[in-house]
């Protein structure tokens, strides 16, 4: 069946039906696009968290080995900054994951 024949068939079925199909397709495409964007953001945030954790480990090493501190705690100035930043990223990841789940549930309900 050629493209023109398919188009004629859609017109013959009526504007209402084709409009409904187009609206549903548009909604699904929008949901899929949003899900893809959220997934990408989540992966980027996870990468950012990993880098922060690596920097935290490096800072702990420097404090304990190079600067010969006996202990390190969450109150240590440089450590506390890293922990706050990691927590901020963790909250963002959880928020994005909830948004993703919300779209996924809505998409399944409309299917």
List the helices and strands and how they pair.
Layout lengths: L2 H11 L1 H52 L10 H34 L1
Helix pairs in contact: 1-2, 2-3
Can you walk me through this structure?
This protein has 111 residues and is mainly alpha-helical. It has one domain. Helix content is 87%, strand content 0%. The protein has helices spanning 3-13, 15-66, 77-110. Helix 1 packs across helix 2 (15-66) and helix 2 packs antiparallel against helix 3 (77-110). The longest helix has 52 residues, at 15-66. It is rod-shaped, with a radius of gyration of 25 Å. The model has no long low-confidence stretch (mean pLDDT 84).
C-alpha-based Rg, rounded = 25 Å
Which overall shape is indicated by the principal axes computed on the Cα atoms? rod-shaped
What is the tally of beta strands? 0
Helix segment count?
3
On the 0-100 scale, what is the average pLDDT? 84
Distance between the termini: 27 Å
Fraction of residues in helix: over 70%
Unreliable runs: none
What structural class should be given to the helix and strand makeup?
mainly alpha
Strand content: under 5%
H/E topology pattern: HHH
Instruction: Describe the sheet with the most strands.
Output: none
Count of structural domains: 1
């Amino acid at each position: 069946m050629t493209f023109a024949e398919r188009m004629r068939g859609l017109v013959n079925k009526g504007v209402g039906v084709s409009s409904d199909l187009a609206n549903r397709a548009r909604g699904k495409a929008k949901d899929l696009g949003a899900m893809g964007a959220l997934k990408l953001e989540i992966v980027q945030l996870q990468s950012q968290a990993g880098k922060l954790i690596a920097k935290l480990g490096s800072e702990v090493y420097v404090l304990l080995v190079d600067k010969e501190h006996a202990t390190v705690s969450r109150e240590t100035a440089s450590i506390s900054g890293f922990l706050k930043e990691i927590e901020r990223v963790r909250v963002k990841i959880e928020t994005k994951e909830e948004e993703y789940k919300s779209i996924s549930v809505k998409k399944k309900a409309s299917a």
